[in-house]
Write a structure and sequence with these properties.
Layout lengths: L1 H16 L1 H20 L1 E2 L8 E2 L6 H13 L7 H18 L7 H14 L2 H22 L7 H81 L4 H27 L20 H10 L4 E5 L7 H21 L6 E8 L2 E8 L37 H11 L3 E6 L5 E8 L21
Parallel strand pairs: 3-4
Antiparallel strand pairs: 1-2, 4-5, 5-7, 6-7
Helix pairs in contact: 2-3, 3-4, 4-5, 4-6, 5-6, 5-7, 6-7, 7-8, 7-10, 10-11
Length: about 450
């Protein structure tokens, strides 16, 4: 039974892949059915049909052969095949008595037209074919006009139109469902790719934040230790201790960030929370230990949403790193975080003037003011040509906020970020969903 069903499925699949062969087979079967029916006498309706009671004329056999041959082209030229078969069926009704069942080919041709055209065309062509052939059978036939053979012509042609229209509607419905499913699949794939790209960008920016901040502190403290190693070993040990603490903190944050790249089920998944204003004191302490005096005024630090909290922390971290590296000796910084209505404002100010040798009033980013000088490591000031300000602005903008950065009147630099307290619609309220920010160097 299984072999029979599999063989039937293979034959059906082959015929579907070769429509011309299928139509030729259908035409041959139709011809055999018409010839067999032409040998059958339906009788007067009171008894069963008698096979072999009559013999078809040669002209009828010719018409049946022509109509069956026309069915081979029913897919390529459906309207022309219907016209030919209907005309030959009408000729059979006019010239032959009793007529041979040439109309069987017309029924198949009408079904093909109905299944491959629209509904208005099906109605027009179907009514014309039904009316023409039924009228020819009633007018030119020897049987009474109300005989069952005449109404059979009307019924079979009408059934062919209805069946073809139903098949066409079902095909359209299935195609619409398939197209909708494919479109939904494409949309899901595009959304997945977009989310992956956003997550990669966020992780890359967080890595950049962590590495640039801590490496800058390590670089400064290592330079201090090297400078005072011979004359003040106690101060050198203290600087090296700060190097150890900064490197340990960098490793911990790297472990947390890189842990996001683990596959599900990997051991030792990261459980540490993302940094925020709750640990702002620890961040400021690292800068104070590096020789940068920082004053902090922060209110409501524990009431911000997670994404806003992380963005504020990263903005402060990046801005203070820039001050330490580029504001010059003797610079001081001020940090403030305040709630203003439905927003949180983060401000980082410094009074640095950059290193000597830079002409005040010019900065590499086109800004003006003394705060755009060159830092001790040869890098640019806070208005420098790196990617830090761009990264901070992207992080803030992703939350629906705004960031401004530029020289202050009278000297120094100012970074000001306005963050909405509520995340944008569609943004999940979790750390990092706003998109990370990369440091600009």
């Amino acid at each position: 039974m299984t072999t029979l069903s599999s063989g039937f499925a293979r034959a059906r699949r082959w015929l579907r892949d070769h429509p011309l062969a299928f139509d030729a087979t259908l035409a041959f079967c139709t011809l055999v059915a018409m010839i067999c029916s032409s040998f059958t006498d339906p009788g007067d309706g009171h008894g069963p049909p008698a096979f072999g009671a009559r013999t078809p004329e040669l002209f009828s056999v010719l018409l049946m052969t022509l109509t069956a041959a026309a069915l081979v082209l029913r897919r390529r030229r459906p309207m022309q095949v219907l016209a030919v078969t209907a005309a030959l069926a009408a000729v059979e009704y006019v010239l032959m008595d009793p007529p041979a069942p040439v109309v069987m080919s017309t029924v198949i041709a009408l079904y093909t037209v109905a299944s491959r055209t629209d509904r208005p065309t099906t109605w027009r062509v179907g009514l014309l074919t039904m009316g023409g052939l039924t009228a020819a059978a009633m007018v030119f036939g020897s049987t009474p006009w109300y005989s069952q053979e005449n109404f059979g012509v009307f019924a079979w042609t009408g059934l062919a139109s209805a069946a073809g229209d139903a098949v066409r509607s079902r095909r359209a419905f299935v195609d619409a469902i398939r197209e909708r499913a494919e479109r939904a699949e494409r949309t899901r794939e595009e959304e997945a790719r977009r989310r992956v790209a956003e997550e990669r960008l966020r992780i890359a920016r967080d890595l950049h934040d962590v590495v640039a901040h801590h490496i800058a502190l390590v670089n400064v403290q290592a330079g201090v230790a090297a400078h005072v190693m011979d004359k003040r070993p106690d101060q050198a040990k203290e600087a090296l201790a700060h190097v150890r603490d900064a490197s340990r903190s960098a490793l911990n944050e790297l472990r947390v960030t890189v842990g996001l790249l683990r596959q599900q089920g990997d051991p030792e998944a990261p459980t540490e929370p993302a940094p925020g204003l709750a640990v702002l004191g620890e961040l400021v302490t690292t800068f104070r230990n590096a020789g940068l005096p920082v004053e902090v005024a922060c209110a409501d630090r524990d009431r911000l949403p997670a994404a806003v909290d992380l963005a504020a922390y990263r903005v402060i971290q990046e801005a203070l790193t820039n001050v330490r590296k580029h504001a010059g000796a003797g610079a001081r910084a001020e940090v403030s975080v305040v709630r203003v209505g439905a927003t949180a404002e983060v401000t980082v100010l410094d009074n640095g003037r950059g290193s000597a040798g830079r002409r005040p009033g010019t900065g590499p980013a086109g800004g003006t003011g003394p705060g755009s000088g060159t830092g001790p490591d040869g890098g640019d000031g806070q208005a420098g040509g790196g990617h830090g300000l761009v990264g901070m602005r992207e992080r803030v903008t992703a939350l629906g906020g705004a960031l401004t950065a530029g020289p202050r009147y009278g000297g120094g630099f100012r970074v000001h970020a306005i963050l909405p307290v509520e995340a944008r619609t569609g943004e999940p309220d979790r750390p990092g969903t706003a998109g990370g920010t990369g440091l600009r160097r």
